[in-house]
Amino acid sequence: MMTNPTIERVSEGILYRNPMPHVYSKQAYFPSVIQLDNGELLASFCIGQAFEAEDLHTCLARSKDQGETWNFEGRLYPGTPDRVTSEAARLSHGKDGEVVAFVIRHDRSRTGQGLANPENLGFVEVELLLFRSRDGGASWDAPEQIDPPLVGPSFEMTSAIVPLRDGSWLLPTSTWRGWDGYCPNGMKMVALESDDQGKTWPSYQDVMVDDQNQIIYWESKIVELADGRLLAAAWAYNEHEARDLPNQYVVSDGRGKPFSSPKSTGLYGQTLNVAQLDDGRLLTVYRRMDEPGLWANISHLEGGEWINEEQIALWGNRITNLTSSSEDMVGNFTVLKFGAPSICRLQDGSWYISFWAVEDGVGNIRFIKLQIG
To answer: What are 35-69's pLDDT values in tens digits?
Structure first.
């Protein structure tokens, strides 16, 4: 472990907060931030009355000063007036300046129920959608349906689309049981594959799979490394033993090449996100479970082994009761107070971290800007 810190906090603040929490409930969750070619930052996040509310919908905000202040721009799209749905989104870059929003839309016809079935950890029915913008998120085309090449039957929102340098796209996700518990392929991490900029998704690759169907890989991410390899990391939960495992990682020599067997990162956390630094090291931001709060970790790969160097607390390390670790995972979901960090590399070389956090009873979107040496 290195003793001299290389992570410097440049600034921090609020990306979005309900301006009148004493009048109405507007809770914000699950941010995603990208920088546009013109230098502006575009953010998506969900706003609703509660963490799993039926009215949880994707909204947008824009910053023209490197993320220090933000202008709220409203809903991504009008929604589904003929039926009750909620959704979550992640933003990424498409070809020739296109902005792509990957959206999972949830069927909320089960009035009074959350997203997950407490009886069997099943999930509501979902639709996988793509929205495209050619003007930096000011307007959006009609949604395009993604037809997955395997039966989930439900799928987890884990990541934005990952454009690879060869022009193909990967979509990291995890299969999820249906509301009735049906899950023909087991709960596993996969990467959907597209060779035509998301128009079709005819194939997929297994990324992390437990042959015993005991370990679930959630909040998975994939990074294309500078040398062409693919690195995937995920929060691992042993459902049979009802306990979290250290975050796991696998490595592939490139798209279509098999991933290695899962190994421990040595980090005990959830909802992690990973990016590669200019010098080849890795930045991981995650909700730590052995200590309170959101943390940033610096590591590197050495001969395929994950080597941790240093980590610092970013937020909440002096706050208690931010998470729960009971055997009731659906119940644990309902009491979370922060998480789902987004990592965005800015044009000036800094790193923009956004995440949701409940403060004074209000779900906010916070940001922290880092310089990493």
So the answer is: 999 999 999 999 999 999 999 999 999 999 999 99
How far is 86 from 105, CA to CA, in rounded Å?
6
Q: Please give the Cα distance from 326 to 148 (Å, whole number).
A: 33
* CA–CA separation, 311 and 304 (whole Å): 20
Say how far apart CA 136 and CA 143 lie, in whole Å: 16
Residue 149, preceding peptide bond in cis (omega within 30° of 0) = no
Q: Are strands 338-345 and 305-315 parallel, antiparallel or unpaired?
A: unpaired
Tokens of 161: 């689309």
Confidence of residue 6 (pLDDT cuts 50, 70, 90): confident
C-alpha 172/C-alpha 185 separation (Å) is 16
Tokens 């799928």 belong to: 155
Any idea which residue has 């590197």 for tokens? 300
CA distance 344 to 335: 27
For residue range 132-170, what is the model confidence (pLDDT) as tens digits? 999 999 999 999 999 999 999 999 999 999 999 999 999
Q: Cα separation of 100 and 136, whole Å?
A: 10
Cis peptide before 78 (omega within 30 of 0): no
- Given a contact cutoff of 8 angstroms between Cβ atoms, the answer to whether 284 and 297 are in contact is yes
Which tokens hold the place of 218? 């959630």
How far, CA to CA in Å, does 200 sit from each of 126, 193, 280? 18, 8, 32
SS3 96: helix
**Residue 302: pLDDT above 70?**
yes
* Neighbouring residues of 49: CB distance < 8 A, sequence distance ≥ 6: 25, 26, 27, 55, 56
